[in-house]
Write a structure and sequence with these properties.
With 174 residues, the chain is of the alpha+beta class. The protein has a single domain (11-173), classed as Peptide deformylase (Peptide Deformylase). 30% of the residues lie in helices and 29% in strands. The chain is built from three helices and seven strands; from the N terminus they run H-E-E-E-E-E-E-E-H-H. It has helices at 25-40, 128-141, 152-173; strands at residues 45-47, 57-60, 73-83, 87-94, 97-107, 109-115, 121-127. A hairpin with a 2-residue loop joins strand 4 (87-94) and strand 5. The longest helix is centred in the last third of the chain and has 22 residues, at 152-173. The radius of gyration is 16 Å and the shape is globular.
């Protein structure tokens, strides 16, 4: 089931998420719903706070080519356990901040540990876009948005555009 994506500014996007202590069927369903929502948006990552749930859960699939099979990942309690010294700059966007993009510098490679859908601990080295995406989504779990990496003026400009977009959407629904 597709879920509505919360748009910035919203206080829920600035809160830290609670660790998942029990993998319930409800949480597995939430993860499946998040994947459906992410693919529909379309996006390459989505964090539970973006659908109004303050649990440490993210989903991602950075496969871009139609010739490659999708690789959906569901991560409960993801954490970065190692980062490279080498940095990478990607133009990032966010489903909670539609149509706004900015260059963000992050570690080029990360090692991530998480619990999968079946409750099994996983570890993986990620590079490039996958590394950027997983860091971006984990930031959401800590109440941090990609615009928080920008200079204040640019961040304020994007926030003003988002306030205007939310007003326009509210008028359309009314």
């Amino acid at each position: 089931m597709k879920r509505p994506i919360i748009l910035h500014p919203d206080p829920r996007l600035k809160k830290s998420s609670a660790p998942v202590t029990d993998l319930s069927d409800d949480l597995r369903q939430l993860a499946d719903d998040m994947l459906e929502t992410m693919y529909d948006a379309p996006g390459i990552g989505l964090a539970a706070p973006q659908v109004g749930v303050l649990d440490r859960l993210i989903v991602l699939d950075c496969v871009k080519l139609d010739t490659e099979a999708p690789r959906p990942l569901i991560m409960f309690n993801p954490e970065i356990v190692a980062v490279s010294d080498e940095q990478n700059v990607y133009e990032e966007g966010c489903l909670s901040i539609p149509e706004q993009f900015a260059d963000v510098t992050r570690p080029k490679q990360v090692q991530v540990r998480w619990i999968d859908r079946d409750g099994v601990e996983q570890t993986e080295e990620m590079d490039g876009l996958w590394a950027t995406c997983v860091q971006h989504e984990i930031d959401h779990l800590d109440g941090k948005l990609f615009i928080d990496y920008l200079k204040p003026l640019k961040r304020q400009m994007i926030t003003r555009k988002m306030v205007k977009l939310k007003r326009e959407r509210a008028r359309e629904k009314a």
